[in-house]
Amino acid sequence: MGSIPKSTEGSITTQKKYDVVVIGAGPVGAALALSLSGKGLRVAIVEKRSRHDLLADRGDIRAYALSHATIEYLKGLNVWGALEPLSEPIQKIGITSGESLKEVVFKPPAAHAAMGAIIPAYRVRHAFLSKVIEDSVIDLYDDVSISNLDNPLERYAKVSLSSGKRLDTLMVVGADGRTSVVRNLAGLKPINHDYNQKALITVVDHTENHQGIAYEKFYASGPFATLPMPHTQSGIVWIGDSAEIDTICSLEENLFKALLQDRYDSVGKITNVSKRITYPLQLTFLSQLYHNRVVVIGDAAHAIHPLAGQSLNLGFRDVMMLSEEIISAHQVGIDIGQGTVLKQYQKSRRFDTLELISTTHGLNSLFSNSNPLLKPIRNLGLFAFAKVPGAAAYATRHAMGLSGYQTPQI
Ligand SMILES: Cc1cc2nc3c(=O)[nH]c(=O)nc-3n(C[C@H](O)[C@H](O)[C@H](O)COP(=O)(O)OP(=O)(O)OC[C@H]3O[C@@H](n4cnc5c(N)ncnc54)[C@H](O)[C@@H]3O)c2cc1C
């Protein structure tokens, strides 16, 4: 790794004024800062981990499924160039009900080469953080977290940092993930639902190529997804009841490999299995996304079931909409932290978020259920759906992020 330039820590003595202070340099927070850079706005981003630590960390072995629309957006931010060589295009998505051998297949429409791409999560984080570090407009305060927030509507909000510095700003954006501190400090109340499920993540090497096919296999015990990665590797997302996933996670390696082989037999022999990581699954929804000058985006605003691999894509759509609102207001000289911008942002995100929550929640309830009465409904439902004219095309457009909101010009 080369030397890392530009550290704002130490160069500021007491306080500095900004238009937008983003808390959290994950992919969503970084995307917002980059979207606003070069638009005449003073932008800062605060990250609790150090840049060295984040750039050295390869521990997040999740494989992100980025939709076609997200990729178009990342091209506009000049982030995709670094990610494309590390990604694998999704040529097809195959869905089975687990109990049946029949498969429903989704392919990209003729005008598109792929439905999206799979890419290791740590690569996405590194690419975004590197762009933020390179950017001459964005001030990055790393290795510090927010310790206090003063959030009046009539004057600048004040963000106090653990380092003792203070940032005064027209708008504070919480992009600090699903346990958001900003959300709490602003008094925004999440509605939570515990799925009592966990996702087990691992990466496998196999002898044959996956042909760019992603599988979603719905078993009564929970969904099981395989995500094609570069070369002959695949990401695995195995979801089930928490106790069951804990047991699977602690299995001896050969036994675990044999179970995976049984569920994923289209890629020849599974030769290697990486470490295993589990994530507890929870649904989080906010009816109010802002208070005075503070607003939340990404996982700080919503956490959804990962069975459709859409949360980060949803977070990027928050960024597209919020940045568009901020830039338009700034261009006509409106105080961006005043109610109209944030009200408009909140309104624009409601339908998209609720639709994805209800789809993932509904699919999980229908398929992750051992009630024998639901078995014929599951099989019938999936295949009847595939026969409805236009239904597969509609679902494909959704999975690619092509329905509804369109990527703005940035
Ligand atoms: C098992 C699993 C699989 C998934 N698979 C997919 C998938 O295939 N596709 C997809 O689209 N999504 C997927 N997701 C969802 C995806 O991981 C999240 O949507 C995404 O990470 C959200 O990004 P974010 O930037 O909002 O938050 P985060 O990635 O959580 O980043 C938050 C950042 O804020 C920083 N921070 C936290 N607190 C503070 C603080 N107090 N002060 C300063 N900084 C702070 C953190 O260090 C971090 O850098 C999956 C999720 C799970 C659990």
Describe the protein.
- The protein is α+β, with helices and mostly antiparallel strands and 410 residues long.
- The protein has a domain at 15-90 and 115-192 and 282-369: FAD/NAD(P)-binding domain.
- Helix content is 34%, strand content 29%.
- It contains twelve helices and 20 strands.
- The strands form three sheets. Strands 5, 6, 12, 13, 14, 15, 16, 17 and 20 form a nine-stranded mixed β-sheet that branches. Strands 1, 2, 8, 9, 10, 11, 18 and 19 form an eight-stranded mixed β-sheet that branches. A three-stranded antiparallel β-sheet has the order 3-7-4.
- The structure holds flavin-adenine dinucleotide (FAD).
- Flavin-adenine dinucleotide is lined by residues 23-29, 46-49, 62, 64-65, 145-146, 175-177, 181, 199, 201, 237, 279, 298-299, 306, 309-313, 315.
Features:
disordered C terminus, binds flavin-adenine dinucleotide, 9-stranded mixed beta sheet, 8-stranded mixed beta sheet, 12 helices, disordered N terminus, single chain, elongated, FAD/NAD(P)-binding domain
Low-confidence stretches: 1-13, 404-410
Which value, in Å, is the CA radius of gyration? 22 Å
Number of strands: 20
Distance between the termini: 30 Å
Please report the first level of CATH classification, the CATH class of the domain at 15-90 and 115-192 and 282-369: Alpha Beta
The biggest sheet, with number of strands, parallel, antiparallel or mixed sense and barrel status, is: 9 strands, mixed
Shape: elongated
CATH-defined architecture of the domain at 15-90 and 115-192 and 282-369? 3-Layer(bba) Sandwich
Distinct small-molecule ligands in the complex: flavin-adenine dinucleotide
Going by CATH, the homologous superfamily of the domain at 15-90 and 115-192 and 282-369 would be FAD/NAD(P)-binding domain
Structural class by helix and strand composition: alpha+beta
Q: Calculate the mean pLDDT score and round it.
A: 87
Strand portion, in percent? 25-35%
Number of helices: 12
Portion in helices: 25-40%
